[in-house]
Structure formats: structure tokens, C-alpha cells
Amino acid sequence: MDRVETRELEYFLAVAEELHFGRAAVRLGIAQPPLSRAIKQLERRLGVLLLERDSRGVALTPAGEVLAKEAVTALDAVAAAARRTRRAGNAEPTLVVVTKPSGDGGLLPAVLEAYARCPDAVEVQIMLRGVAARARPLRDGTADVAFLHSPFEDLTGLDTEPLLVEGRCALVAADHRLAGRDSIVMADLEGETFPRWRGVPGSGPPDGLEVREGSELMQLVALGRAVALVPESARSQIRRDLVCVPILDAEPMTLLLAWPESSRSPALAAFVRTATEVAAARAPRPVS
């Protein structure tokens, strides 16, 4: 079997998404006959039928459905490789670090200060992203390393280093029935409404109120519309009309650094090493 070309994958994906050769050709900016020939050539290369064609239109075969999914991943990987290559060739290299606001466990200022003293250090750029968008820049090649939280993140294709294990608190309005408690257990939250982060499976009940940003979350809690589970480090970031109450039996969260598995950068390695050392000095207990 001959090697499949990225151009063929782009052509096929356009047809698979449009399910119409004419619309796909317009989208690609080419004539329809060469598009049809390219798809037939791809089918010959692979030795399978990808599309069912009849007078009613175009439909994907089972093989075509598989290739449509794989093509997205392959083309995204090629685009990410190109972005990383261009960034690596810059005269002044940079390290792009992704975090959500207040999502670094309070470590980032000390990490940046210590990292600046490393021989392999380069200029650091901070990219702020919401909960659901923190890992995406690692996969598309626009960032090098991110502060993420386990167990809620999809870590497929990423290497990771745990930094801190944090307990969790209930974030409640100042006039909430539990606001005056020194601590609670999960059973005390029975009947409460919990939000979920948009685009993050498992971050809350399927029918929970959907939030996209921390400001939305805090406003819902302040209005008494929801109660949120947050890491202990969030205590220093909350509004005055909110209260964090420790939950004794809640599943802990792990703050970790993540980066693409293929990364081989001395600057990145120095950043990960520095962050690990800073976290170890701050942590009251060892990271598992």
C-alpha cells in the first residue's frame, strides 16, 4: 500500500463532513472532477471503499467513518508539528505555559523566579485558558506545558509530573447553611445543585448548571444557585461573599504539569524540574 498524503486526507475529510462532492469542492477551492479522482485514488491506495455514492447523495462506509475520525487526528498532528517547528526556529525561543486563572496552586510566581536562574531557561509566556481549554494548546502546538488537574483532564498523548495533592472544599455563599462549619463530609451536600464545566466530561452532573469561566461559577454560588467543589488552594482566590468549607472525605485533586509526549526540550525539562522542586518545598506531604 502506498503512503497516504495529507492532501488526500484533507480532500476526503471535506467530502466526509459535507457529504456532497460539489460543496466539498467549493470549500476546498478546487473543481469537482479532480476531487472525485483524488478520492478514488485514495480508495485504491487503501484497498477499501470509503464512500457510497448514489443518486440520493454520498454516505460514509464503515471504513470511511474510521478514516474520517483518524484523518482529523492525523491532520491536527501535522499542523501541530509545523507550529512547533516554526516556534523552535525562532531567533528568541520562548516557553509557553498554560494555566487557568488561579489554577497553579499558588506555585507559579515562585516557579518563574527559580526558573529564571536556570542555565537552560528561556523567556516564559503565560497563556490563560479556561478549564476546558487548557490541554488544547499542548496538542495544537501553540504551547509547551500546562498546569492541569487530575482526575478530570484527558491526558491522552501527554507526559505528566504531579506537583501537589490537594484536599477539596465546598464553595458556598456566605449565607449558606454550611458556611459557618469548620468542616463537612460529602453527605452534608446531599440535595445541593452542582455545576459542570463546559467541555469537561465528569466535572459535574450531566444536568448541572453549565459554566465556562471561574467568574460564572462564583456568581452562581454567590446567588445561591449552586455549590462547587474546589481545591484547597482556591481559598486565597475567592470573593468576599463566598466561603470555602473543607470536605473531609472528598476525593483529592492532583495538580500536575503536562506536556506533549514528543517534547525533547532542555528549556521544558528545566521548567518541569524547577516546578517539581518548588512544589516539594511547599508540600506538607509527599506527592504520590
Automatic annotation (TrEMBL):
The keyword DNA-binding applies. InterPro entries: LysR_HTH_N, LysR_subst-bd, WH-like_DNA-bd_sf, WH_DNA-bd_sf. GO terms for cellular component: protein-DNA complex. It holds the Pfam family HTH_1. One of its GO terms (molecular function) is DNA binding. Gene3D superfamilies: 3.40.190.290, Periplasmic binding protein-like II (3.40.190.10), Winged helix-like DNA-binding domain superfamily/Winged helix DNA-binding domain (1.10.10.10). The keyword RNA-binding does not apply. PROSITE patterns: HTH_LYSR (PS50931). Residues 4-61 form the HTH lysR-type domain. Belongs to the LysR transcriptional regulatory family. This is LysR family transcriptional regulator.
